[in-house]
Amino acid sequence: MLTTAIGLGAVFVGGIAYVKWYKKDVLDKIENAFAAGYDPALELAKSHTPKKPCTDADAQDPPFDGEEPWTENLRRKEQDIIDHIVHGEESGHYFVLLGPKGSGKGTMIFDSMGACQAEGVSMCDAHPDLEVFRLRLGKALNFEYNEDTQTGLFQRRDPREGGPALDIERAMNKLEKVALRAAKVRGRPFVLIINNVHFFQNDEAGRNMILQLQQKAESWAASGILTMVFSSDDFWPFHVMRKSASRMHVLSIYDLDAREALHAATRMRRSAGRTVAEPDEMREAVALVGGRLSYLNKVSKSRDMVGMAKHLLEVEKAWLLSQIGLIPDCDDDVMDEQKWSSCSWLLLREFVKIREEQLKEVRESGVVAEELPLPSIPYWKCRVIMTRADFMEELDRCNIISIDIHHNVRPDSNLILHAAQQVTEEDGFDDLLQSVRDRVDEIESLHRTRELTFKDLAKGDMIRLSVDKRGAELMATRDGEDSDS
């Protein structure tokens, strides 16, 4: 009996000690995820295999062009602000980086993380599947969601039974305990970066996940223990977060202007080992691709800069037509797609008209303009032009347009604008657009038409239909007779 009691007591005490050790180990592992040195996202962003540099300035372009960081050749003006945020020098707020794809948001974040060896910083990529996002967040925080504990042998419920939202809430609660403990020692907040939040689905589950993360960001910003940073290519996450935001600051990332783009392209070309291009060739190439860093990186490393820029333009034009190409005599099965395409071309045609007005003003003034800004239209006016408000989000998701925090709508890039110019300037485009819109109206009219069928009619029978315009008078007479009676 005594031996049994001693054995049960030892198991009980050992179980309590194991649970206490395990809880402390979970918090220590999360804190190690913010320690200087290894960070999964930062390590994957680095190149771990050496690449052979280009020694021949006139060599052919490689079949697979590398994407070296442009930060070696350019430091954007927003970099100082992002350094200030990522290094934990800004507390009391959380931030949203909003800008089109390829503008340099992620590269600037990685550059800031590399400067501080990711001390106090952790980064996680969003995903449409919340179960995948749950695993990615656990990897970033070094948290196993209690799946590695031996106490699971004595539990009736599986730790993952509550779904990804509940698991992510558990991870956030553990992170909160670690941040409270570390803030007293470090004197600075931790920084948690959720990259590409536009990858969440814009449905109830995705919006609820953004709200869940935002609620934590608000409370942590108020206490100054952790700063959250969200980055997005699309506008809709900002639209969702704006409703509940009180400590949110938005940093818009735009394309480079003409002077900065020329400077960056020159330095990129020199670092790639290519011969310095003629100024006119450089200006022509930059005028085609604009200040988008991802395009400048490709053009600058090519032997023929203008040829590469024109190739990128052809690719962008072909992709644009594959997404919103017009079909004159469309079937009713593609009516919704053609409705979206025709409304999209109404907006793009308006952008082209604004650009033509800009060029006309420049020619009349006689002043050579180094840069023409991308045409912009207020969001409310775009709704009027397209006659449909629900198409804007899909255009933004397809990177055809971009929307900033001031609710100004622009073409996503210079290539999109040039591609739209080439399409709208083709002979018969206006007639084609109008014919597609007329065809959509015809199909919708047919869908609203109802068929009246008469049965049991023999040969020679006649049906007479009449329309009596005196229906209101008959109703008034009948109502009067009813009241008299």
Describe this entry's structure for a reader.
The protein has 485 residues and is of the alpha/beta class. Helix content is 54%, strand content 8%. The chain has helices spanning 2-33, 40-45, 79-86, 105-115, 130-141, 164-186, 204-223, 236-241, 258-271, 279-289, 293-300, 305-324, 335-365, 379-386, 391-397, 414-424, 429-448, 471-484, and strands at 94-98, 121-125, 190-195, 226-232, 248-252, 377-378, 401-403, 408-411. The strands form two sheets. Strands 2-3-4-1-5 form a five-stranded parallel beta sheet, sandwiched between helices. Strands 6-8-7 form a three-stranded antiparallel beta sheet. The longest helix is centred in the N-terminal third of the chain and has 32 residues, at 2-33. The model has no long low-confidence stretch (mean pLDDT 84).
